[in-house]
Amino acid sequence: MKSAAQTSKLQTRLDRALSVAYKTYDYELEEIKPKPAKKLPSQTQKDSFYKVAIDNKVQGYAYLGQAPSKERHFDYLLLFDTDVTLTEIKILIYRESYGNEIGTKRWLKQFIGMTPSSSAKFKENIDGISGATISARSMTNAVDNALEVMAILQKDNAL
Predict the structure, then answer these.
(1) Rounded CA gap, 78 and 147, in Å?
(2) Is residue 1 packed enough to be buried (19+ CB in 10 Å), middle (13-18) or exposed (0-12)?
(3) Burial environment of residue 13 by CB neighbours within 10 A (0 to 12, 13 to 18, 19 or more)
(4) Which range is least confidently modeled, 55-64, 77-86, 125-134?
C-alpha cells in the first residue's frame, strides 16, 4: 500500500508530466473503467486508464501503471494520442539505486509510435540495458501489456 507521501509525490509528478505534454494545467482526466477486467492482462489489474480532455475535447489517453524492478517497483506514464499511438513515456518514480537508466529519453524513445497492433519484445525490437536488465525487461513487458489493454479498450469502444 502506498503512503500518503508516495501518493502525493506520484500525483505531483503525474501533474507535471501531463502539463508539459499538453502545455497546460487546464486538462481534465476521466477514468476509463475497462469491463470486464478478466479480459485484461493480469499485470494491469491495478493500473489506471484515463481520457485526457482540454475544454471538454479529448486530446488523448493516459495510462498510469506500476512495474517491478529488482526489489521494488516503479511508476510510469504512457501517453497516447487520439489515434491511440504512443506519443510519450515517462518513468515517474524509480525506487532503486541502480537500473534507473530505463528512465532516459534515449532508451524510452524505442516505444514511441507503437499502437495497439504493435508488440514490444525485449531484445527483439526493444534493446536491453546493461545493469538494468530486470527493469528494462519489466518496462518492455509493461508497455506490451498496456498496448494489449488499449487494443481491448479500442475494440470495446471504451475510448
Answers:
(1) 10
(2) exposed
(3) middle
(4) 125-134
Query: In which domain, by residue range, is 59 found?
Result: 4-155
Measured CA to CA in angstroms, residue 7 lies from 20, 40, 56, 87, 95 at distances of 20, 24, 27, 25, 14
pLDDT in tens, 20-30: 999 999 999 99
Cell numbers for 116, please give them: 495497439
* 64 strand-pairing partners: 48, 77
Please give the tally of structural domains in the chain. Answer: 1
Quote the cell numbers at residue 45: 489489474
36-72 residue pLDDT tens: 666 777 666 677 899 999 999 999 999 999 999 989 9
